[in-house]
């Protein structure tokens, strides 16, 4: 392919609204262009890479026994109402109406559609298990699209769904696809971890996220220093053994704390260790209010709270509800004297606080020397806080450390969440009707592309792995007015194509500095420069990562390129 024919508008300056490397470089190299906030066009080079990522996904899914299909992006409201997610999915679901007033959603995911297809066509256990997948655009109305392809409103996704007659069958396919995902991200050259995760709006249990390690990741991974244990910080259980307080109980005392609302302000004002304070939060769980207590130096994990309560949604109560229920402002909340109708949950660490400090439910006042059971009661003590670095690992091996990660894949054991609500049933060998057991498996294809760029770049541009680059070899003609250089570049292009290489030839009438700068931006792993020794049939062969550079004859090119690939320079 001649570069003069390629649409790849490069940028010399970093776009002002691009905050991370992948966003900056994909824009600068002309791989993508923004059409609206969170919505991008993939230009020819970007599209080539996207298809290479998709093909790796496709090959591994096919090997794992899944079959590809294609479902509509436009989904009927009635299907989402059957599953109960028309309201519960939240504002991220893009809703619209046709000219007849019928409701539809743009596909954020396809559990409802695929369940309806299976429900209507599959009735017997003899047809199970089956796994179906597709690769297509998804739509989510993100409140704050950012980081380019990492958080968009339209994105490319592979979503797969498995259907089973037994839990054992689901477990087997789940393990097989878990391995397929590991193969996919390994083939993409990514440094990743599979971590225990929360299923969120998808539902189900036993889920894992595949996280690409990156400092700009939006998720925090808690991992053991001495074992393979890893979990999303939202899901990592705390196994600290808290010893009961040995403090002699002191008399409770109400003290003035004028204009002191945060834990830091109150403990500093009262000259108390923060570990002696109790943070009190009022939450609304679906339609019920619950008071939650955590130690002052800990952060409440609302995912743990949501899962413990079995709620669809939990959120902090608004100031109006706090005032009406607790009789004070948010900064003065505490568990003492609370109406018995309000459930009080506390993290296990609170049970070990003796002579603690908490809000007095009176603006500008706090209690000192507060003790559980004597001064307030707790409905139940449960694990409600985020794990912290230095805590013991939940598997009993080592301690917890943190890393940032970009989620690129997620696998779920859905169970019968959708089949029960949507009446997707099968007849077993005894003629008994049962709900189909389901699994769900997603990969962000465009997000994976961005994650690759986050891990493969330098100060000059992208450095693609050989199997993902838009072209295998980039041929640069230094002087297009030199007939010997032009002729040799054409001969090299023909030779490489005959030997199965995908070649880009920079035949543009540009300064050599511009050509080298664009080549660095594009990141094609092997570069051949046709220059002043063209008359001798000698060219420069080098790799984009800078680990190899050598002058070779044209006759040596094919073997040298094969050797480079064998030595895994990429």
From TrEMBL:
<dbReference type="InterPro" id="IPR036621">
    <property type="entry name" value="Anticodon-bd_dom_sf"/>
</dbReference>
<dbReference type="InterPro" id="IPR004154">
    <property type="entry name" value="Anticodon-bd"/>
</dbReference>
<dbReference type="Pfam" id="PF03129">
    <property type="entry name" value="HGTP_anticodon"/>
</dbReference>
<dbReference type="GO" id="GO:0005829">
    <property type="term" value="C:cytosol"/>
</dbReference>
<comment type="function">
    <text>Catalyzes the attachment of proline to tRNA(Pro) in a two-step reaction: proline is first activated by ATP to form Pro-AMP and then transferred to the acceptor end of tRNA(Pro). As ProRS can inadvertently accommodate and process non-cognate amino acids such as alanine and cysteine, to avoid such errors it has two additional distinct editing activities against alanine. One activity is designated as 'pretransfer' editing and involves the tRNA(Pro)-independent hydrolysis of activated Ala-AMP.</text>
</comment>
<comment type="similarity">
    <text>Belongs to the class-II aminoacyl-tRNA synthetase family. ProS type 1 subfamily.</text>
</comment>
<dbReference type="GO" id="GO:0002161">
    <property type="term" value="F:aminoacyl-tRNA deacylase activity"/>
</dbReference>
<keyword id="KW-0963">Cytoplasm</keyword>
<keyword id="KW-0067">ATP-binding</keyword>
<dbReference type="Pfam" id="PF04073">
    <property type="entry name" value="tRNA_edit"/>
</dbReference>
<dbReference type="InterPro" id="IPR023717">
    <property type="entry name" value="Pro-tRNA-Synthase_IIa_type1"/>
</dbReference>
<feature type="domain" description="Aminoacyl-transfer RNA synthetases class-II family profile">
    <location>
        <begin position="38"/>
        <end position="465"/>
    </location>
</feature>
<dbReference type="InterPro" id="IPR007214">
    <property type="entry name" value="YbaK/aa-tRNA-synth-assoc-dom"/>
</dbReference>
<dbReference type="GO" id="GO:0005524">
    <property type="term" value="F:ATP binding"/>
</dbReference>
<dbReference type="InterPro" id="IPR044140">
    <property type="entry name" value="ProRS_anticodon_short"/>
</dbReference>
<keyword id="KW-0547">Nucleotide-binding</keyword>
<keyword id="KW-0436">Ligase</keyword>
<dbReference type="InterPro" id="IPR002316">
    <property type="entry name" value="Pro-tRNA-ligase_IIa"/>
</dbReference>
<dbReference type="Pfam" id="PF00587">
    <property type="entry name" value="tRNA-synt_2b"/>
</dbReference>
<dbReference type="InterPro" id="IPR033730">
    <property type="entry name" value="ProRS_core_prok"/>
</dbReference>
<keyword id="KW-0648">Protein biosynthesis</keyword>
<dbReference type="GO" id="GO:0004827">
    <property type="term" value="F:proline-tRNA ligase activity"/>
</dbReference>
<dbReference type="InterPro" id="IPR045864">
    <property type="entry name" value="aa-tRNA-synth_II/BPL/LPL"/>
</dbReference>
<dbReference type="InterPro" id="IPR002314">
    <property type="entry name" value="aa-tRNA-synt_IIb"/>
</dbReference>
<dbReference type="GO" id="GO:0006433">
    <property type="term" value="P:prolyl-tRNA aminoacylation"/>
</dbReference>
<dbReference type="InterPro" id="IPR006195">
    <property type="entry name" value="aa-tRNA-synth_II"/>
</dbReference>
<dbReference type="InterPro" id="IPR036754">
    <property type="entry name" value="YbaK/aa-tRNA-synt-asso_dom_sf"/>
</dbReference>
<keyword id="KW-0030">Aminoacyl-tRNA synthetase</keyword>
<dbReference type="GO" id="GO:0016740">
    <property type="term" value="F:transferase activity"/>
</dbReference>
<dbReference type="InterPro" id="IPR050062">
    <property type="entry name" value="Pro-tRNA_synthetase"/>
</dbReference>
<comment type="subunit">
    <text>Homodimer.</text>
</comment>
<protein>
    <recommendedName>
        <fullName>Proline--tRNA ligase</fullName>
        <ecNumber>6.1.1.15</ecNumber>
    </recommendedName>
</protein>
<dbReference type="InterPro" id="IPR004500">
    <property type="entry name" value="Pro-tRNA-synth_IIa_bac-type"/>
</dbReference>
<dbReference type="GO" id="GO:0140096">
    <property type="term" value="F:catalytic activity, acting on a protein"/>
</dbReference>
């Amino acid at each position: 392919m001649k570069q003069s024919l390629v649409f790849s508008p490069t940028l010399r300056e970093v776009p002002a609204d691009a905050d991370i490397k992948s966003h900056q470089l994909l824009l600068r190299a002309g791989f993508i262009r923004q059409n609206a906030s969170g919505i991008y066009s993939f230009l020819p080079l970007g599209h080539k890479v996207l298809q290479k990522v998709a093909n790796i996904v496709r090959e591994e899914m096919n090997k794992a026994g899944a079959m590809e299909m294609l479902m509509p992006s436009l989904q009927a409201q009635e299907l989402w109402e059957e599953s109960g997610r028309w309201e519960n999915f939240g504002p991220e679901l893009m809703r619209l109406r046709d000219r007849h007033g019928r409701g539809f959603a743009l596909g954020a995911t396809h559990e409802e559609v695929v369940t309806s297809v299976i429900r209507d066509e599959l009735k017997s256990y003899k047809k199970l298990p089956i796994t179906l997948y597709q690769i297509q655009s998804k739509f989510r109305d993100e409140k704050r699209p950012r980081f380019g392809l990492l958080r968009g409103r339209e994105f490319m996704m592979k979503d797969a769904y498995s259907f089973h007659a037994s839990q054992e069958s689901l477990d087997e396919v789940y393990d097989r696809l878990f391995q397929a995902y590991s193969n996919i991200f390994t083939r993409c050259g990514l440094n990743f971890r599979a971590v225990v995760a929360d299923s969120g709006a998808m539902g189900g249990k036993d889920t894992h996220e595949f996280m690409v390690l990156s400092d700009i990741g939006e998720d925090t991974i808690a991992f053991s220093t001495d074992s393979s244990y890893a979990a999303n910080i939202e899901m990592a259980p705390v196994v600290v053994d808290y010893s009961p307080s040995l403090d002699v109980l002191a008399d409770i005392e109400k003290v003035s704390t004028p204009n002191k609302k945060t834990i830091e302000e109150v403990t500093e004002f009262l000259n108390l260790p923060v570990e002696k304070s109790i943070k009190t939060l009022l939450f609304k769980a679906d339609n019920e209010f619950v008071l939650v207590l955590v130690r002052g130096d800990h952060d409440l994990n609302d995912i743990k709270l949501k899962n413990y309560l079995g709620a669809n949604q939990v959120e902090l109560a608004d100031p109006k509800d706090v005032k009406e229920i607790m009789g004070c402002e948010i900064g003065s909340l505490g568990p003492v004297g609370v109406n018995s109708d309000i459930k009080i949950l506390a993290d296990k660490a609170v049970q070990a606080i003796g002579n603690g400090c908490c809000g007095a439910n009176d603006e500008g006042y706090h209690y000192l020397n507060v003790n559980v059971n004597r001064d307030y009661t707790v409905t139940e003590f449960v694990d409600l806080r985020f794990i912290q670095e230095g805590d013991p690992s939940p598997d009993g091996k080592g301690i917890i450390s943190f890393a940032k990660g970009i989620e690129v894949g997620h696998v779920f054991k859905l169970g019968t969440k959708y089949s029960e609500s949507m009446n997707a049933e099968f007849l077993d060998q005894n003629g008994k009707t049962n709900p189909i057991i389901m699994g769900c498996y997603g990969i962000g294809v465009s997000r994976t592309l961005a994650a690759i760029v986050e891990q493969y770049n330098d100060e000059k541009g992208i450095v693609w792995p050989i199997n993902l680059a838009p072209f295998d070899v980039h041929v640069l003609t230094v002087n297009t007015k030199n007939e010997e250089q032009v002729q040799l570049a054409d001969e090299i292009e023909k030779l490489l194509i005959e030997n199965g290489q995908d070649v880009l030839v920079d035949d543009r009438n540009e300064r050599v500095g511009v050509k080298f700068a664009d080549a660095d931006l594009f990141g094609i792993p092997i570069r051949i420069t046709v220059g002043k020794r063209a008359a001798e049939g000698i060219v420069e062969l080098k790799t984009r990562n800078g680990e190899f550079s050598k002058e070779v004859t044209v006759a040596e090119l094919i073997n040298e390129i094969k050797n480079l690939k064998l030595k895994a320079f990429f």
